Amino acid sequence: MAREADADDGAAAESPRDEAALVEAIAAGIAHEVRNPLNALQINLGILRQELAEIVPDPGSHVFEVVAKIAGELRSLDNFVTEFLRFARPPRPRFETVPVRPLLESLVAFIGPECARKGVSLSFLADGGPDVVVADGFQLKHAVLNLVLNGLQATPAGGSVVVATGGDASRLAIEVRDTGEGMGPAVLSHVFDAFFTAREGGTGLGLPIARRIAEAHGGTVSLRSREGEGTVATLALPVRPVSA
Ligand SMILES: Nc1ncnc2c1ncn2[C@@H]1O[C@H](COP(=O)(O)OP(=O)(O)OP(=O)(O)O)[C@@H](O)[C@H]1O
Ligand SMILES: [Mg+2]
Predict the structure, then answer these.
(1) Cα separations (Å) of 87 from 16, 20, 25, 135?
(2) CA atoms of 231 and 132, how far apart (whole Å)
(3) Rounded CA separation 209/227 (Å)
(4) How far apart are CA 142 and CA 161, in angstroms?
(5) What is the DSSP code string of 63-122?
(6) 221: Cβ below 6 Å to ligand 1?
(7) pTM of whole model > 0.70?
(8) Among 78, 170, 192, 212, whose CB has the most other CB atoms within 10 angstroms?
(9) DSSP secondary structure string for all residues of 148-206
(10) Does the CB atom of residue 184 touch ligand 1 within 6 A?
(11) Are the C-beta atoms of 216 and 139 separated by less than 8 Å?
């Protein structure tokens, strides 16, 4: 029996043998069965809007509000599918030598305007750790972005979010510190569960994705928080040579 289960034949490839393979199979199904019709809906809605504009002269007409609402809902669904696929089928990291400071500074520059709009100060603090790491720069940035967005979303106007580097020659620690609402132990114990969210409009995939990315690099993501005081999210990566 064991030999049959272990046999590396076509049947084994078709029947998922563990949870990861099952999630992968579901993701492939969603990619095909949901994303394709979704794209078709978006394209057709665009055509409908154009043709409506030819027969309905008033751009303020109610029908355009309806079309805009449908487009908005389709966009939300598309974002959800994209995030889900990123969670379920994380691409293997493409390792390269990544200068840490420019990567984080560009991230801060990218998200800065959104923080300013909300009245939250965002800053970068180089406080130790290696100058470069071997990592997938795009994935690393995505993971830190998820932590920064969480900090921003939890922080009211007048508060701050700081992205700080630390660690030593063998370990890079990127801390995202916010002065936001924080969390109690009940929320904290679930934040890495897929689809767990305590935020209106949240998907609950930001932290699971950040953790998967960190783990694919041999690293970790952890959170410390005090309700009413703020949160520190830490992404830690080992400094390692390029692997084959
Ligand atoms: N810095 C933070 N301060 C307070 N609560 C936080 C913080 N970071 C995470 N959380 C809590 O953890 C939950 C899960 O976070 P996660 O990033 O996984 O999902 P989300 O932010 O709800 O949705 P999204 O998929 O858009 O990121 C959040 O809903 C929030 O309740
Ligand atoms: Mg989030």
Answers:
(1) 18, 11, 13, 18
(2) 26
(3) 24
(4) 17
(5) HHHHHHHHHHHHHHHHHHHHHHHHHHSPPPP--EEEEHHHHHHHHHHHHHHHHHHHT-EE
(6) no
(7) yes
(8) 212
(9) HHHHHHH--TT-EEEEEEEEETTEEEEEEEE-S----HHHHTTTTSTT---STT--S-H
(10) no
(11) yes
Provide the token pair at 24. Answer: 């992968």
pLDDT band at 17 (very low <50, low <70, confident <90, very high): low
Express each pLDDT in 148-161 by its tens digit.
Answer: 999 999 999 999 99
3-class DSSP assignment, residue 135:
strand
Contact 203, 150 (CB under 8 A): no
Mutate to test the pocket of ligand 1, among 82, 191, 213, 221 (most ligand atoms within 8 A of CB): 191
Q: Which two tokens stand for residue 186?
A: 């009940």
Answer yes or no: is the C-beta of 199 below 6 A from any ligand 1 atom: yes
CA of 58 to the centre of ligand 1 (A): 42
CA distance 191 to 199: 11
Query: Does the pLDDT of residue 9 top 80, yes or no?
Result: no
Nearest to 183 by CA among 150, 159, 160, 210: 150
